[in-house]
Amino acid sequence: MLATRLADLIAQTDLHLTDLQQQQLVQLVELLNKWNKAYNLTSVRDPKEMLVRHILDSVVVGPHLQGSRFIDVGTGPGLPGLPLAICNPDKSFVLLDSLGKRIRFITTVVHTLGLKNVTPVQSRVEAYQPEVGFDGVLSRAFASLSDMLQWCHHLPAEHGQFYALKGQLDPQELADIPSGFEVIGQQPLLVPELDAQRHLVNVRKVS
Ligand SMILES: C[S@@+](CC[C@H](N)C(=O)[O-])C[C@H]1O[C@@H](n2cnc3c(N)ncnc32)[C@H](O)[C@@H]1O
């Protein structure tokens, strides 16, 4: 059963999730699995594998987030934004993608789960102009660090930072970041039962 499996995985982390949050994460996987058959939202087909590769891979970032207003760029079906929003109801998340079917999926999840802290936005990131800058700009499987920073340079608030979720770190990718930015952190993320390396790279603008 998905709920038992999720509880087992969460117990292997330092995270403390309520019963409601765990139920919502399972509902998210069920919706992802249902919509995936028609809309091809993810190449991961097995719901149990989605728990590890999508849900756990996203929620482990939560303790690293600083601030309260976040945007997830190139969010696809809401990853990592939806699991993070479920687990961090005190923070708000704009989930942005250029593809309408992905934003329609996210909107359905938001209504079905009653999430109050998620705003889905269909736009190319380069064209999106927020009224107020974000404390954090999140991305997973979106673009190279260099491209992401060039396309998203206008999104953080003055004190804000970028959080890029990466697999194995490529020193060249870190060295190639555009001028005007600096890497302020790079750390491994522990995702239970994932057979691959995961890292979080933090970048900020240099003033
Ligand atoms: C490989 S998917 C990753 C989705 C999700 N973040 C994940 O980890 O599963 C990349 C997503 O970025 C979106 N995308 C690519 N370029 C974009 C742009 N310039 N503006 C907004 N979204 C973009 C695509 O539509 C796609 O959904």
TrEMBL record:
Substrates-to-products reaction catalysed: guanosine(527) in 16S rRNA + S-adenosyl-L-methionine = N(7)-methylguanosine(527) in 16S rRNA + S-adenosyl-L-homocysteine
GO function terms (MF aspect): rRNA (guanine-N7-)-methyltransferase activity
UniProt key word Ligase: no
E.C. no: 2.1.1.170
Alphabetized Pfam families for the sequence: GidB
Enzyme's top EC category: transferase
Family: Belongs to the methyltransferase superfamily. RNA methyltransferase RsmG family.
NCBIfam families documented for this protein: rsmG_gidB (TIGR00138)
Main function: Specifically methylates the N7 position of guanine in position 527 of 16S rRNA.
Record protein name field: Ribosomal RNA small subunit methyltransferase G
Species annotation: Ferrimonas sediminum
Gene this chain is encoded by: rsmG
